[in-house]
Amino acid sequence: MNFDQADAINQAIRRLSLWHRARVGELLAPLGLHPGQEALLLELARSGPMIQAALSTALGCEPPSVTQMSRKLEASGHVLRRPARGDKRASVVELTDSGTALVEQLRRLWRGLAEETVAGVAEPSVAGLPELLNTLASNVRRADRPGAQ
Amino acid sequence: MNFDQADAINQAIRRLSLWHRARVGELLAPLGLHPGQEALLLELARSGPMIQAALSTALGCEPPSVTQMSRKLEASGHVLRRPARGDKRASVVELTDSGTALVEQLRRLWRGLAEETVAGVAEPSVAGLPELLNTLASNVRRADRPGAQ
DNA sequence: TAGAGTTAGTTATGCGGATAACATTATCCG
DNA sequence: CGGATAATGTTATCCGCATAACTAACTCTA
Fold it and tell me: Using a 7 Å CB cut-off, which residues contact strand D?
C-alpha cells in the first residue's frame, strides 16, 4: 500500500471519529449528557447492573475512565453505585429511574443518528457496515495484538 | 432502522474511534508525539506552511485545538510559528527541519497502520473504504447539516 | 471614511480518555 | 495456612478536543 492510500484511510477514520463524536455531543447536549456517557447508560440498559470492570471491558475503555464517568452520572442522578456483595473491591453500577427514562430518549436519538450516518450508502453496504467497522476496530485493538497484556 | 441495527453501527464507530486512536498513540509514543499531532505535521507536509485557520479546516477541528497543538509542537521544535505578512491577525505555521525529519518516520508508520487496519478485508472493500468512511463522516459533519453556521 | 460585521487567534474551563502509581481485597498454590 | 500473584478500583496528571467569551485586525458598505 502506498502512502496516499494509507493516508486516505487513516484520515477518513480520524474525520469519522471526530465528527461522529461531535454530532453525538450535539444530540446529547439537550439531555445534559456528554459523549461517552450514552455508551455507559446504554450498556447498563442492555446488560443490567454490572461491576465497573465489566463496564470497562464492554465499553472498550480503561478503568479510570469508568470511575470518572460513573461518578459523574451518579452525581447527575442517572446511575447508582453500590458495593458488590461477595467482593469488597468491586462496585456495582445500575440505572436509576431517571437513568432508565433517559435511556428511552437515547434509543430514539441513537436510531436517528445511525440513519443520518448511513445516508446515501447502498443498502447492502449498510447491512455489512457493523461487521466491517468491527473488523477494522479489532485489527487495531491493543488486546488483539501479539505482545499485549 | 431498528434500535439494534442502529446500535451496532454507532457502537462500531465508537470502538473504531477509540482503538484506532489508542493504536496511533502507541505507535507515536516512541517519537514523542501524541495522537492528533501527527495529523497536523502531515498536513503541513502535504500543503506547506499555512495559517492556523486553514489548519483548523483541514484537520476538521476547532481553532483553540490548533492553537494548543501548534504551541506544543513549537515547544518540541517540530514546528515554527511566525506572523503572517499581510495579515496582522494570522500566524503561519511551518515545519522545521526536525519536523520534516519526523514526517519521514510518520509516513512509514502511517502505511504500517493502514495495512494493519484493513487486514482481512477484501481488496475491493479496501479500495472503496476511504470513500465509504468519508461519506459517513460528511453525513454527521456539523457544517454539512442545515442550520449549521 | 466611519461604523458594522466578519475573521484570526487566544484564554479559560470542562469532558472523555489514557497512563502510572497505589491501596485493598481475592485467589491460587506450595 | 500463608505468602505470592492477580484483580478491582482510585487518585493524580497529561493530552486532544470542545465551547464560551474575548481582543485585535480586516473588509465591506452606507
Answer: A 14, 18, 22, 25, 51-53, 56, 63-64, 66-68, 70, 81, 84, 87, 89-91; B 34-37, 39, 59-62, 64-65, 68-69, 72, 86-89, 142
